[in-house]
Amino acid sequence: MRIKTEYFTLLLFLVLSGCGTAGRMASGWGRDYEPENLTERPITRDRMKNSKTNPAAENRDRDETDFPGDRAQSSDERLLESILREELDGWEGVPYVLGGVSMRGVDCSGLVQRVFADALDVRTPRTTKELLLFGERVNRSSLRSGDLVFFEPGTNYRHVGIYLTDGEFAHASTSSGVMISALSEPYWARSYTTSRRILGTSNILSEAVSYGIRVSRISAGLQRKDP
To answer: Active site residue: 25, 80, 84, 108, which one?
Structure first.
């Protein structure tokens, strides 16, 4: 009986202390949360190609009311968008799996880690909590491709996605797997908390894009055009 009780306690601890909660497991596995009644648009191949305290409290910027609109992109930003969409195309339909980091299943922070590492050779933290302290904060009205967008869909739960363009972001949904959603959708607009920029300087962005071009499956169609 004691063994069963201890096993149940350990199991409960593992479920509650993930990347989506206030705590973090040593292994870096985490939990991402979305309600079952959330209506989201499944990702499609065409949309992929074309389309020290509480960090959440410190980074929250709910006072901002504007989501990004159309703005001119630099050459590297356009290339980055193409590289990200091509990489994410390969993740289309991959199911959500708590702690997953592979094509068999992935969670939201795991998707960020794999996409940035595989497509751009950029190493990112494994958990959403750590990602909240990574890079630099950016206003959501100034978002550009490759920025991370964060949400709090419920108490003590966090979620993260990769911003693309036109108000869309890619993420691993618990209900639909890897997909694209719009920041303007009421649910996401309401639960949005902050954004972070990982590729903050022109040098870092340029290096990431150069790597992405070399390894991309569409490298033949990606050419940097210096202004």
So the answer is: 108
**159 noted as active-site residue:** yes
Query: Domain for residue 44, yes or no?
Result: yes
Query: Exposed/middle/buried for 97, CB within 10 Å: 0-12, 13-18, 19+?
Result: middle
Residue 70 is part of a domain; what is its CATH number?
A: 3.90.1720.10
* Full residue range of the structural domain in which residue 85 is found: 29-221
Considering 24, 126, 171, 196, which one is annotated as catalytic?
171
Q: How confident is the model at residue 217 (pLDDT cuts 50, 70, 90)?
A: low
Which residue is catalytic, options 85, 158, 159, 197?
A: 159
pLDDT band at residue 154 under the 50/70/90 scheme? confident
Q: Kindly give, in sequence order, each residue whose CB lies less than 8 Å from that of residue 207, ignoring residues fewer than 6 positions away.
A: none
pLDDT at position 112 is 98
